[in-house]
Amino acid sequence: MIVILKQDPPQKKIDELLHWLEDFHVNINIVKGAHTTILGLVGDTSKIDIESVQAKDIVESVQRVQEPYKNVNRKFHPDDTIIDVHGEKIGEGHFKVIAGPCSVETEAQICQVAKAVKASGAKFLRGGAFKPRTSPYAFQGLRAEGIELLSEARKETGLPIVTEIMSLAHLDLFNDVDVIQVGARNMQNFELLKELGHCDKPILLKRGLANTIEELLMSAEYIFAGGNNKVMLCERGVRTFETMTRNTLDISAVPILKKVSHLPVIVDPSHAAGRTDLVKPLSLASIAAGADALIIEVHNDPKNALSDGAQSLTPEAFDTIMGDIKSMASYMGKQL
After folding, report:
1. Residue pLDDT, tens place only, 260-314
2. Distance of alpha carbon 305 from alpha carbon 245, whole angstroms
3. How far is CA 175 from the centre of its chain?
4. 162: which strand partners?
5. Rounded CA gap, 111 and 85, in Å?
6. What is the pTM of this model?
7. 138 phi, psi to nearest 5 deg
8. Can you say how many angstroms the Cα of residue 260 is from the centroid of all Cα atoms in its chain?
9. Quick check: 40 and 77 in contact, CB under 8 A?
10. CA angle 289, 296, 200 (to 5 degrees)
């Protein structure tokens, strides 16, 4: 249920309304905008009579929310959420590029790529330490050592690091990670999402290979329910019958997510396409559709990469594409 208050209500009246609502044993989220205060009621609101709420002299309007996702719903939070990571902001017009290799391989590799993407304008460094692979015989990542190497690259460049978690057993290893990524295969790992809801770190939540937009939002709701509201949604392509691309980028997901949720939306054109020649057009299309950030794979030697070399740009190619990305972002009124 959403309760919209009249402009500038007395605090005493607000306290009285909150005290009255608390008797119904619902969680109350208070959102104060520039001109409006909204109360978002989460829980069993069936016993709350809308007309009784509406009768309160400080209440402007009341409406029930039919969608199963509450906290991530824009109805509860009309203003865009901004995720701030050490001064680098994503959301509400703040646009960023996250770049780096699919897998962390060596200290020289990750530091070289980190310096290159920073010089081109990327503000975050991505790199896989734990790698979910289809084949059990493929490279699975350097694990804890990979996180240590990412930390070394951060020391040299100052770029916040983004890396994927695969198991609750590894959570302690992510204490020094700036943004924890939940990959497509773990989007509905609900026990993991619950635990991430208790940590005070931004979460980059990727849409599953065959999941709906509502299922993505419900996964974000799991994290919010635990108390962590630092969530970013990532569209990385879904599996269809098309064979010319690795996945099919659902570009329509970007404006839909922006409409129904207040969370920042990130697009991963590398995983969506699976080929470097489509990274530029998909990146530009994503910005035009309203994306708040891009996450792009860059490797200093893609032909010999231990994973996903076919979709990884060279630092030189990334630098060229960044020029177009900056121009498009500026045209769309984004702050880089």
Report:
1. 999 999 999 999 999 999 999 999 999 999 999 999 999 999 999 999 899 999 9
2. 19
3. 19
4. 126, 179
5. 20
6. 0.90
7. -80, 165
8. 15
9. yes
10. 90
